[in-house]
Amino acid sequence: MAQNIVAKVKDSIDKMPPLSPVVHKIIIVANDVTSSAQHLTDVIQLDPVLTAKVIRMVNSAYFGLPQEIKSLKQAVVMLGINTIKNVALSSALMGKIALKKGAIDAEEFWKHSIGVAVASKLIAQRLSIDKKLLEEFFIAGLIHDIGKVLLNNFFLDEMKQIIEISQTKGGLIIDIEKNILGLSHEEIGIAIGKKWNFENNLLYAVGKHHIPIMKGDSAIYSMIVHIADVFVKVSKVGFSGNYVIDPIDESIWQILNVNEEIIFETLSTLNNEIQKAKLFLQ
What we know:
mainly alpha, Hypothetical protein af1432, 17 helices, 0% strand
């Protein structure tokens, strides 16, 4: 049965619509050190709907800019190429990810996702990570449970069983999923991410946020999203189908040079920041 489910998952992923070619062009331009604000503006403007969304988001309370931004070029100049790349990417992703009515309540799921997104960014900020990368941590948190969307939409009975076991017996959610389905939402998330040409940073966040990778260039995304996920669960912000709060390995605290007290202090503004960030779901 598990083999049949794995085959069905692969088939479901194959049938998922690709991201807009404009999104891939945005990523290429943003990652090219020779690119200018004009280069990025020219690419985003190929998609008028995306252009309007980016300008609307830039003018939201989330960014809190002192003046209204009226053009895309102005937005790129004010916030930088990398930030606008991530705003555009998050807009495009949210247009592709729809949680159907099923085992997980959509509103609670997205509350949790937004919570992890905001918490990931706040933690990255506390660790003095380059400001240009902060929005990438936001996106990493926002999409960390993307694999659960497919499970909820296509494997309703199995997802209900997974949630019930999580509530009554406990254990790592990825272990429960593997026992029932033959694979976890992390593995599904990686497959979706590869289809959509995610960079390694996002693949690490999507695919290794329960048992984080602690070495390598992208390991920081895995560890920060893991901590953010745990603390958002502790704070009871939303619900993503997992009743168990994962333990945080002592090695992670040592590598990042933080502790629980510091993280609680860092996330003291979590609820206020979540209210600002809800625009990403519109």
